[in-house]
Specification:
Pnp Oxidase, Chain A, eight-stranded antiparallel beta sheet, 18 strands, alpha+beta
Length: 472
């Protein structure tokens, strides 16, 4: 499939139309699965979703009965697969979609052809390039509508058809030993390209998408992806939700910050990406926790009910603590004296003549003495000035407010209090993420709902030292 600027613009503007003279849909993992034949048109609807208008020439029992296929979408054997031949001679494939017959299919029972409207997640085209690359480099290119507020370090020149030249700093290039990442702001869209060894490509893509979305407050939705490796060229058009492209939430950092000496502090910003890549390589579960919690927080701000981001942020902060910080901090914080006392108590308990279940329950309770829990973890972080003490109190208040919601005669006053708690908790979440990523640069402080002041702190996050604690 020929990918050019015109096609990419049609995809971006939801004007894509692909005519297919042959379309087959099967459940190829089942011996008696669905098999449908016909033709149709693949297009993008106004909201950004891929749609197949399928003219089907095959009668099928599930169509006659009005049953959706697959019946169980969690059963991989029931997965639907699509293969379409375009009038240009290309082969397109897709899978993982669903067919839902409408009421009109039951009315026109037994008649062919009939039309099925099928929503697709993506369509793929795989071709073999005539010239094989001699190196092992893997190339990924992504396009998405969302702008990214990141520092630019490369200037480009564009020339109009009339010969007018325009210079602009619209590109960010980050080069390390094993990879190169380029992000280009085209005004109408953003282009991301990555060159790396094949075994690092997916890791780099996910870390870069996290970096761009997290620092910009945007949820990135690539509408086109192309990968090139040796002779293999894979092009994918993806469904998106265009209404999300214009929505941002308050970000943790700014794309342009200068120090007191006037020097731009871009390297701090880039360190978020470099350290996210390192984290995803060394501790993939830690990176996954950061990314997934941030995605949930972003989507929670779409809700009309402000209680949704409140609840999501309360859980996300606790999730980061339990998933990442408590396991790591437990390696540094110990109390040998308490551990000796616990062992002695457990020995004494075992001498008591009671039921084994009761004995195990008591022993487990004693074993948990002195363990780090979210509140204690936050207090330690506050002692080291990684977070502020008001962050801890605010998070506790927010958790209580979401667990025990109240009604008030002065609803507006309560709403303002909830908004303030939410934005301070958002700032706390950002602090924890940035601390995990060893970030030491400027960030928005979020001390209240309208605070966008930037903190310029040389050593915002001092390292936690091995400490022997006497607390239980």
């Amino acid at each position: 499939m020929l990918i050019d600027r015109d096609l990419l613009k049609d995809i971006r503007d939801s004007k894509l139309t692909i005519h297919c003279h042959k379309v087959n849909i099967t459940q190829k993992k089942l011996d008696d699965g669905v098999e449908l034949e016909g033709y149709g048109i693949i297009k993008l609807n106004e909201s950004g979703g891929l749609l197949l208008e399928f003219i089907c020439n095959t009668l099928a029992e599930f169509i006659l009965s009005g049953t959706s296929i697959p019946i169980d979408s969690l059963d991989e054997k029931q997965t639907l697969f699509l293969e379409a031949k375009t009038i240009d001679g290309h082969t397109l494939t897709s899978f993982g979609f669903k067919i839902t017959p409408g009421l009109h299919h039951a009315i026109t029972v037994g008649k062919v052809p009939y039309i099925l409207h099928i929503d697709l997640l993506n369509i793929e085209n795989n071709i073999q390039h005539p010239y094989e690359s001699s190196d092992e480099e893997y190339h990924i290119e992504l396009h998405f509508r969302e702008p990214c507020d990141i520092p630019k370090n490369v200037s480009n020149t564009t020339e109009s058809t009339l010969g007018h030249k325009e210079f602009s700093w619209n590109q960010t290039r980050i080069t390390q030993k094993n990879y190169e990442i380029n992000i280009i702001d085209h005004k109408s869209h953003t282009e991301l390209s990555i060159r790396s060894p094949k075994n690092h490509a997916t890791l780099l893509k996910n870390a870069t998408l996290f970096y761009l979305g997290f620092t910009s407050g945007s949820y990135l939705q690539p509408y086109f992806e192309q990968t090139i490796y040796k002779k293999e060229v894979k092009s994918t058009i993806l469904s998106t939700i265009k209404s999300k492209s214009n929505i941002t939430i308050p970000p943790p950092v700014s794309g342009r910050v200068a120090g007191s000496d006037g020097k731009m502090l871009d390297d701090f910003h880039y360190s978020i990406l470099i350290n996210a890549i390192e984290l995803s390589h060394q501790h993939p579960s830690y990176f996954s926790s950061l990314y997934l919690h941030w995605k949930r927080i972003w989507h929670s701000f779409l809700s009309d009910e402000f209680s949704v981001p409140m609840l999501t942020l309360g859980v996300a902060v606790e999730g980061l603590l339990n998933d990442i910080l408590i396991p790591e901090m437990s390696k540094h914080y110990s109390n040998p004296k308490l551990e000796e006392e616990k062992e002695l108590i457990i020995e004494k308990i075992q001498e008591i003549d009671i039921k084994k279940d009761h004995l195990k329950s008591i022993m487990k309770y004693v074993e948990r003495w002195g363990n780090l829990h979210p509140k204690k973890c936050l207090n330690i972080l506050a002692e080291h000035q990684i977070v502020d003490s008001f962050h801890v109190k605010n998070w506790i208040d927010l958790r209580n407010a979401t667990a025990h919601p109240k009604t008030s005669k002065n609803g507006e006053s309560l709403r303002k209090k909830d908004i303030r708690r939410t934005f301070i908790s958002l700032g706390l979440f950002y602090r924890l993420v940035l601390y995990t990523l060893h970030y030491r640069g400027p960030l928005f402080l979020y001390r209240n709902e309208s605070d966008r002041e930037i903190g310029l702190i040389d050593e915002l996050y001092p390292e936690l030292e091995d400490t022997t604690s006497s607390e239980s």
